[in-house]
Amino acid sequence: MNRKNAWTTYGEEQLKEVEQFAEDYKEFLNNSKTEREAIDTIVNEIEQAGYRELNTLIGSKTKLKKGDKVYSVWMNKSIVIFQMGSDPLEAGLNILGAHIDSPRLDVKQNPLYEDGGIAYLDTHYYGGIKKYQYVTIPLAIHGVIVKTDGTTVQLCVGEDEDDPVFFVSDLLIHLAQDQLGKKASNVIEGEALDLIVGNRPFVIESDEKEKAEKKKAGLSEGEKYAIAAEKAEKADSGKVSGAVRRGILAILKDLYGIEEEDFLSAELEIVPAGKARDAGFDRSMILGYGHDDRVCAYPSMRAILEAKNLKRTACCILVDKEEIGSVGATGMRSRFFENSVAELMNLTKEGFSDLALRRCLANSCMLSSDVSAAFDPSYASSFEKKNAAFLGGGLVFNKFTGSRGKSGSNDANAEYIAEIRKAFEKDNIIYHTAELGKVDVGGGGTIAYILALYGMNVIDSGVAVLSMHSPWEAISKADLFEAYRGYTSFLKNIDFRNE
What we know:
Layout: H1 12-30, H2 35-48, E1 52-53, H3 54-60, E2 69-74, E3 78-83, E4 93-99, E5 104-115, E6 118-126, E7 139-146, E8 152-157, H4 177-180, H5 184-187, E9 195-198, H6 206-215, H7 221-237, H8 243-256, E10 266-272, E11 277-279, E12 285-288, H9 291-305, E13 313-319, H10 336-346, H11 354-362, E14 365-369, E15 372-373, E16 395-398, E17 402-403, H12 414-426, E18 431-433, E19 443-444, H13 448-452, E20 457-462, E21 464-465, E22 473-476, H14 477-493
Parallel strand pairs: 1-2, 4-13, 4-14, 14-20, 15-21, 16-18
Antiparallel strand pairs: 2-3, 3-13, 5-6, 5-10, 6-9, 7-8, 7-10, 11-12, 12-22, 16-20, 17-19
């Protein structure tokens, strides 16, 4: 079966569009290294495009009509976006669904400790990673700390040129004979992925301490807090220790107004520091953190923003927790999406009923927009080349995911695939189909099977990624652009229901 390379189909004007879309995407990627940051970036963009918050419309009892633009955010980590079509909701939605979480390291709730004169933050890795890839690279801290007085401190350290960065150490090659004899999965243990955050001890001479005790002046809030911490440690253990740890506490108090106990209500994520960059002499690729799955989330959002005059209501779902099984209140398994559709239906002239909601979801069509593994000639033995995704091949469809005997997959039906083929041929979308590696090698899953539980038609589609789940992944600009074009065609053209 012949496959086109998308680059060979572009004229001069379209090449400019490809480059501009890539620049917009890189900016999004740089500003969206966590789910919360992605939601903030998305909300800012869609509100400028005229989208209104669902709860506001509920409060004002606003009735929705064709062309109305609505969104709903859940816990600052997931979002659903709607553009109303002319058909009643009961006829079904055209849905683009992606996730905005990515593999990383998370800071534990009691993280700060000192050992050997070095201060660390204890971490727990999130999602599927090769642990050895996270050592000795510059890392940044992103996240929020919520204090008991209700204030939220936003943290982003390591991204600006003047910021410090952080890192996880590795054993020097000269002493690594035993380490190098281990399996790759055990070369770096999970409990060894602790972030180095400082080395300078906090020291105040005795006379300065006495002066500070008498006058309570001349020292910063952080220094006062560090002295109090030293007293507490002294009373608890009978000796003074942890001067480097206390130095970090002083800095955190001075810069951010946070104390050690505030880690208990913090969500801090450790991600690779630095911006997404063009890759290759020809600048045909983008190297960056978090392509999985923001490389599908961004064109999904752009497709719904730029859609016009729709027959079926368009929907874009961008969710959290896919990398750990779509669990929790912000994952696809929660009722957030279903509840949002019910509220939306209640604002239409047809109104809400449980039966109408069930019909709406069952009549819907979805592209589960998630990445696929790009064929890598360096590891060709893991792929079945006839059914592999290729950089430059355009949008990728995975009829099924899962592992080995299709375990855990959604297997899209032939009728639905034919409908998508017809739409894409109409708009000259470059696409190809793939599986995730050889049959017995492994596999993976997406959110497709969760939406399929409603009885709707779902197929996986997305962008091919090299070095998936690594700190720095690579994608083709052409594939990114074809994903945007394909998602736009899907929202505009698909009107398919099971008989």
